[in-house]
Amino acid sequence: MSLAPSTELRALLALHLVPGIGSRLTSALLERFGSAAAALEATAAQLQEVPHIGAKLSQTLSLALRQVDPAAELELMDQQGVRLLVRGGPDFPPSLQDIPDPPHLLYLRGTLLPSDARAVALVGSRQFTSYGRRVAESLAGDLARAGFTVISGLARGIDGIAHRAALHAGGRTLAVLAGGLSKIYPPEHTELAREVETAGALLTEAAMRMEPMAGMFPARNRLISGLARGVVVIEAAAKSGALITARHAAEQGRPVFAVPGPLDSPSSAGVHHLVRQGAILIRGVEDILEDLEGVKCPAQPARSPPAADMDDTQRSIWEFLQDRPRHIDEMVQQLGFSVPHIAGALMTLEMKKAVRRLPGNQYERR
């Protein structure tokens, strides 16, 4: 007897809410019992027939399956404007259907469009440098202007910069979270999440109230790469989580693009390792477009204020800030200008939006 979709969806959500039942075990349960509703009614002895479920776990799961009630979850979703996307359903992202270990359910707040299939993921370090910020802002903005949806993970650092740059360029952006949508993490990105939702969507595999524990981020990363046509890694240390996203991308058949950094920079050690493993080194958005769509673009000149608008002091400061932020005392010592001279030039460059002031009297290029 076939079940109504709403009944099966509630049963699938119930499976999803049982601790210890991830996407792989859900797949095994569906294969053994034919439906989520039937799996909910399975006895401990029947559960033990499923691969990787032993006698002890079968007893625990049998009890949990009979106690779980998705009603509270559905009510909270309704209150917060969240809906479920079911694998195989018409709204489920096609690019996630056939990745290794695909999700059975996705929580969505916002809107997915068919054009979001033309997407690129930008990921990188939470501890970014001024160079990483400039590159992330430039690439995300250029991709958005080229009609690509920018995907990232709403984390501190490169993720947040990429989302903001795509929004500033008037483009679409998707954020894939490790935790539930009832409480945005990190909390300082709550307003950014609202902006992303308006110009795209927030997605997660986690239940509404689920806290983003460390072990959930690698699983989240497979969704970031799975939604994208390619993954760009901008600044990643030797053990960065961005490298996990790159590994998922390679396993899913997505190209991995690497932004090179200074050879002696720990922030780029992981990126340089990716290049040695075969990642595609890129110099700008034109390299991404050429690889993904065969579009050859003329190299874009570096974005900098016209030299004609700078006097000698301003130009010296601009060049001195090329690689990283600098303290005003360092500028005085290295450039040979007086403190008032440097301070006046910095004020002018700030007004021109060429540099920004950082805490501790440090400055960096915009």
Could you explain how this protein is built, in words?
- The strands form two sheets. Strands 1-2-6-5-4-3-7-8-9 form a nine-stranded mixed beta sheet, with helices on both faces. Strands 10-12-11 form a three-stranded antiparallel beta sheet.
- Mean pLDDT is 88; it is low at 1-5.
- The protein is α/β, with parallel strands linked by helices and 366 residues long.
- Helix 7 (130-145) links the parallel strand 3 (119-124) and strand 4.
- The chain has 16 helices and twelve strands.
- Helix 7 (130-145) runs parallel beside helix 8 and helix 10 (216-227) packs across helix 11.
- It has helices at residues 5-17, 23-33, 36-40, 44-47, 55-67, 71-79, 130-145, 158-168, 190-198, 216-227, 242-251, 269-276, 285-293, 312-320, 328-335, 339-351, and strands at 83-86, 105-110, 119-124, 149-152, 173-177, 200-204, 230-234, 256-259, 280-281, 326-327, 355-358, 362-365.
- The radius of gyration is 24 Å and the shape is elongated.
- 44% of the residues lie in helices and 14% in strands.
